[in-house]
Amino acid sequence: MSNYQTNKPGDDNNRTSDHRNREEFEETPTWAAVVTVLGYAILSALGWLRDFLRHIGLEEKRTAHDPNPKDFVPLYQSYECFYTRNLYTRIRDVFNQPIASVAGAKVHVMERVSDDYNWTFKFSGKKIPSINLGSYNYLGFAENQGPCSEQAIKSIETYAVTTCSTRHELGHQRYVKELESLMAEYLNVEDCIAFGMGFATNALNIPTLAGKGDLILSDKLNHVSLILGARLSGATIRTFNHNDMKDLEAHLRKAIISGQPRTCRPWKKILIIVEGVYSMEGSLCKLPEIIELKKKYKAYLYVDEAHSIGAIGSRGRGVVDYWKVDPNDIEIHMGTFTKSFGSAGGYIAGKKNIIDYIRVSSHSACYSSSMSAPIVQQIISALSIIMGRDGTNDGQKRIQQLACNVRYFRRQLVDMGFIVYGNNNSPVVPVMLFMPAKIAAVNREMLKRDCAVVTVGFPATLLTESRVRFCISAGHTKEMLDHALKAMDEVGHLVSLRYSKKNPHHRWVELDHADYDKEYTS
Amino acid sequence: MGSPANHDNVASLATDFYSLLESFKETPFYHLLFEIFLVLTVLWLILFRKPRRIEKKLTEKEKQELIDEWQPEPLVPPVDANHPALNVRVLDGIVGKTIEIDGKKSLNFATFNFLNFVGNPRITDKAIQAVQKYGVGSCGPRGFYGTIDIHLELEERLAHFFNCEEGIIYSYGFSTVASIIPAYSKRNDILFVDEGVHYAIQKGVEASRSTVKWFRHNDISDLERLLVEQDIHDKKNPKKARTLRRFLIIEGLYMNYGDLCPLPRMVELKYQYKYRIFMDESVSFGTIGQTGRGVTEYYNIDRRKIDLISSSLEYSVGSIGGFAVGSSFVVDHQRLSAQGYCFSASLPPLLAAAAIEALNIMEEEDTTLCDTLMEKSKRLHQKLLDIKGYLIVGEDISPLKHLRLTNSQNTVARLEEIVEFAQTRGITITVARYLNDEHRLPEPSIRLILNVEMTDEELEFLCTVLQEARVKVTV
Q1: Chain A residue numbers touching B306 (CB-CB < 8 A)
Q2: CATH of the domain at B108
Q3: Does residue B136 share a domain with residue B94?
Q4: What is the pLDDT along chain A (522 residues), one digit of tens a residue?
């Protein structure tokens, strides 16, 4: 039972209800929800039975043993590991699959075999070349050849791999300054600061922006790093329903009118935290409406563009570009370099006074090693290509290729009868599975057909909303996408994944391919 | 002797009462029920109902006024443009044993380049090969095709180096220990933490939301006092005590003080008071012990007695990232519960390749890197003790030393002057930088770091420059 808002005609803001920006979250069919919960119940019952058998000694205990004496307090509560022992281990081969090549459009997955039902693995030595639909490689910069990697190699020779010092001491290299000014130009803001890890960018910098006496309004489906940062800051956190503007407005009004709990003092400031593209849902935040609300109620806005920078927008500048809003309306632009730039790290951009304050008081700048030279050089090369500074139009081609691929892939999945969540333009394409067994089945069957996909279940998603999440890349060719669609069609037929009640069900061969091929010529 | 009138009164009362009872029998049932209900309601209102607070109901106009009047504070407070963090030296070149600042070469005693792996040609080659094979980034977290065979190799090598069952790597040094502590210690668990631990550990402790008991830096008697107190508390409530986990969080070699932890005594206390030891060996990995295996090697303690050793790849090893080693029982839990591991992109392959090559160099048969480093640290320590006017903080074998000024002249401004003067003479040193919200802000100091490739002449030169600087500053 989905509680997300679908856009209805006659919504307040015309832009967000435009058919091109349509977001679909079809409701879970009741019978599917019932069967899913039944499935988990049966698995749990079996798990208790197995635990009991292990306790009385009939079955072998496979988990590792605590090397400390018995009278130490147990490190883990048995109920904490119940899920790991009895549910996760059954399908453990489907997660953490190692690869042996560059994580580009095609990848070599290392085959693992298990003799004891996934408790231990051995490598068979075989490498399965598969189409990579799981890595975050939106613009196809995960390459081991080409101008980016050549420049990265040159930078290793010039600057070595690390500086072994922090930004406040001796780690402030010229190339980091170059990256920061280039990124600020790219985003059309005053200043920018870069960090070595995207997760840490959120978790360690939100505490410098908010503190006790502040209010953080965070979307229910925000990423763990944002939640951790908000918790570490000490501010009061309230969540609003995913992309629900009415709920957000109600929270804002209530906060300003009632003030802080118990003392009723007015809040010192209110910070709204949203993401550009939500990685599990594929939905885009409704930025114009949020900016309107923020201006009306004098709140501050923090947008995490981890998945949207480079991948969304006609010029690849993220949700700000997509919705055509003024970047100065958003106080903090945050993003990561891992997804679209094929590197690692994160950035925060905004007005100069805010960035200066972060430079002075950020935990990362003061205590962590500065960024590594090849990592920074890869980002600079990728940015130059996207902005067209290298003299070619390769960047624009990649952005357009990604948009075509996304539209091509999504439309066919929807027309085949699968429930696909998210915005029509988001490169993250979640297809619903619901039942726990299908998480393993779809992954294994797709790998047999040379497609490496990511399937997720509880606790990354709600209990009844397991899904397979495709990440489309500009590096995928039309042939690769056709192969993947054919595989999905077969697997969907084998495992019964066509749940949609809104769209009729078709097999892939029944679709009119000439119609979809027009995406590539338009 | 009742008079007839009295007797009549009583009789009439009795009759009245009797007729009352009769009338009860005659009243309809619902009427009786209604009356009983009313009586009970009155009793409830008097005895049990709490008086309701009269809620202030605001009108729409008042609400709008409140909204219009509210003024938030600025998002960030103003920053002094002269703050040192905004005026940092910009470098452009390899930051190895020597660095070039403003066109002049100087000896580098400021970066954590203990074993001089920065710019090492073997490591550079391996990193380049990794880029040619895997590209630069890993494009995903460990759970979603971000696990590359080179990560698995590095984890195995680290576990093998420390002779432990399993190892796990993280993509950022700061996040390593800050993710590890909350993965094991939850609300209500007890953490005994040394006051001198570095900032990342403090953040990990904060994120865990556990009960924290700080003990004075390296003061075993203070720790024992806390343990005894906790023991007494446990005896009062043994059932609860059996569910509370206890951890001791220490560092092998403290980054902020340069001294070793009294590990043997702490291990004894572990078995007496039943807590687990999490030791952070960021600085002592590769620098302490005959072969660089850390404080456990130096004190000759069985590594299996330490529950978890966490460390960083950003200091001796010359790469980026962090790792933890220990028994499978302890380490495997992090693969599903450590946030910095599950929800973050994995380490770029070229950095893992650099770390593997560094381990190769450290494990070579004839290497005396760590031995040499300890010897040189001892010699530098002696030389520094001979300079008047400085207080040297740290062990003699520690390659990381803190220098403070004596005679209550120890201020950041004076130390900055010394640093500037040293730079003009060709020695690069740095004042240790901290944020203001450290749990216990260490006193201002210059953090001196010894590079194993420094020759005796260069160490002499350093001491000469420090002596001159001291004289200049006091004048």
Answers
A1: none
A2: 3.90.1150.10
A3: no
A4: 333 444 444 344 445 555 556 777 888 888 888 999 999 999 999 999 988 888 888 777 777 788 888 888 888 877 778 888 888 888 888 899 999 999 888 999 999 998 888 888 889 889 999 999 999 999 999 888 889 999 999 999 999 898 888 888 888 889 999 999 999 999 999 999 999 999 999 999 999 999 899 999 999 999 999 999 999 999 999 999 999 999 999 999 999 988 888 888 889 999 999 999 998 888 999 999 999 999 999 999 999 999 999 999 888 899 999 999 999 999 999 999 999 898 999 999 999 999 999 999 888 888 888 899 999 999 999 999 999 888 888 999 999 999 999 999 999 999 999 999 988 889 999 999 988 899 999 999 999 999 999 999 887 888 888 999 999 999 999 999 999 999 999 999 999 888 888 888 888 888 888 877 877 765
B51 in any annotated domain:
no
Contact status of A375 with chain B (Cβ, < 8 Å): yes
Domain boundary among B302, B330, B365: B365
Domain boundary among B341, B365, B389: B365
User: Which residue stretches of A352-452 are H helix?
Assistant: 352-361, 363-367, 373-387, 394-416, 436-448
Give B-chain residues touching A97 at CB under 8 angstroms. 145, 147
User: What residues of A are in contact with residue B144 (Cβ under 8 Å)?
Assistant: 134-135, 454
Q: Does domain A147-387 have CATH number 3.40.640.10?
A: yes
Distance from CA of A160 to the nearest CA of B (A): 5
- Write out chain A residues lying below 8 Å of B81, CB-based: 356
- Judge whether A376 is closer than 8 Å to chain B, CB to CB: no
The one-letter amino acid at A404: C
Specify whether B211 is located in the same domain as B345.
yes
Q: Does domain A93-132+397-521 have CATH number 3.90.1150.10?
A: yes
Burial of B378 (0-12, 13-18, 19+ CB in 10 A): middle
CATH number assigned to the domain comprising residue B145: 3.40.640.10
The whole-angstrom separation of Cα B162 and Cα A306 is 36
Which member of A75, A107, A353 has the closest CB to residue B184? A75
Burial (CB count <10 Å: 0-12, 13-18, 19+), residue A263: exposed
Reported ipTM: 0.91
Q: Is B67 exposed, middle or buried (0-12, 13-18, 19+ CB in 10 A)?
A: middle
| Number of domains chain B is built from | 2
Token pair, residue B343, equals 């929800």
Closest C-alpha to B72, from A197, A242, A296: A296
- Domain range for B393 is 88-114+366-474
Looking at the complex, report in whole angstroms how far the Cα of residue B112 sits from the nearest Cα belonging to chain A: 5
Nearest chain B residue to A71 by CA distance is B274
